[in-house]
Amino acid sequence: MAEAVKTGAEVAHEVGFPPFNAETFASQLFWLALTFAFLYWFVSKIALPRIGSVIDERRQRIDTNLAEAAGLKAKAEEALAAYETGLASAKVNARAIAEETRARLAGESEARRKVLEQELSSRIADAEKAIADTKTQALGHVGEIASDAASAIVERLLGSAPTAVDVDKAVKSALDR
């Protein structure tokens, strides 16, 4: 009974490796050719057309997207050019407005300066006139003040008051020198 049961390894060793068995070469070649023909037909008629259509769809989608991107890029460049043109125009307008405002303010300040100069000139002229009048009045009274001072000094030094005529003569002779 021990001989009746063989292991798989023993059976395989007795039969040999099936692809190398010369008795089954013809059937193996037949099935190889039939399987190859079926796979060739399947790949060429079903699988490759589907893969080709997917590749074509992707290529068309990529081409469409690239065309759209180029169009959007052109629009963006146009918008950028329009923006830069508008910005340059705005800068020119801003400079013009600034120059106009600067000129207007300079004119206004010049007019104010002239008005203030005229007011100051008139005030200075009035002050100089007042000073001249005061000086004239003061110089007109110098003789009297000098006479009074000289009379007071002589009276203090000598003890007696000089006559008004003598004091006036002395003051006049001193002022004329």
Account of the 3D structure:
The chain is mainly alpha-helical and 177 residues long. The protein is 88% helix and 0% strand. The protein has helices at residues 8-15, 25-158, 164-176. 1% of the residues are buried. The mean pLDDT is 87.
What's the short story on this structure?
With 177 residues, the protein is mostly helical.
Strand content: under 5%
Q: What kind of sheet is the major sheet?
A: none
Rg of Cα set:
65 Å
SSE string = HHH
Quickly give the structural class. Answer: mainly alpha
Morphology call: rod-shaped
Mean pLDDT rating = 87
Total number of helical segments?
3
Helices and strands, with pairings:
Blueprint: H1 8-15, H2 25-158, H3 164-176
Structure keywords:
single chain, 177 residues, mainly alpha, 88% helix, 0% strand, rod-shaped
